[in-house]
Amino acid sequence: MTCYDRRDLGLLLLRLGTGGVLAAHGAQKLFGWFGGHGLEGTGQFMESVGYAPGKASATAAGLAEAGGGVLLAMGLATPAAGAAAAGAMAGASAVHLPNGFFAQEGGYEHAASLGLAAAGLAVTGPGRLSLDHAMGHVLDRGWMVPAALGVTAAATAVVVGLRTKRLRAQKEGEQGALFEEFEE
Prior knowledge:
Blueprint: H1 6-31, H2 38-48, H3 54-74, H4 78-96, H5 109-124, H6 131-134, H7 144-173
Helix pairs in contact: 1-2, 1-3, 1-5, 2-3, 3-4, 4-5, 4-7
């Protein structure tokens, strides 16, 4: 019989907490659960903040959050699950970046914390109290960690880069007053 240690229990708690929050957040986007706006509303929001097309962006973010969160909580395919969730949270952090760090001001604190926890789990692994361990780590090989994080980082860089380009183009299209008007 395997003896579990406090590291295994700690990883289980971190996976359940982080994965649960991510899964609920993704369910808001995908299904409108927990006070969310579903794909239509989230798609409109995504479009308004520069992620286009909005509905496809909402679907991708929702699947990465909900799917990655559920898989993290179960400790299954941990490198891919953690990388997917971290990528989604990097995209969310980009939206909140102009508001500073703290969440109470609309900042990126919450998204960054979830993303870093997910990435940390991808790197560390799920521990022995996980489906990955029970299945002999067939979906949690050492080479999968850099592969999953590398592919996710590249895809996230492209998506966030395109968003930044769109926002700059919109801003350049706006024209301010050429001359100040003076009242006499």
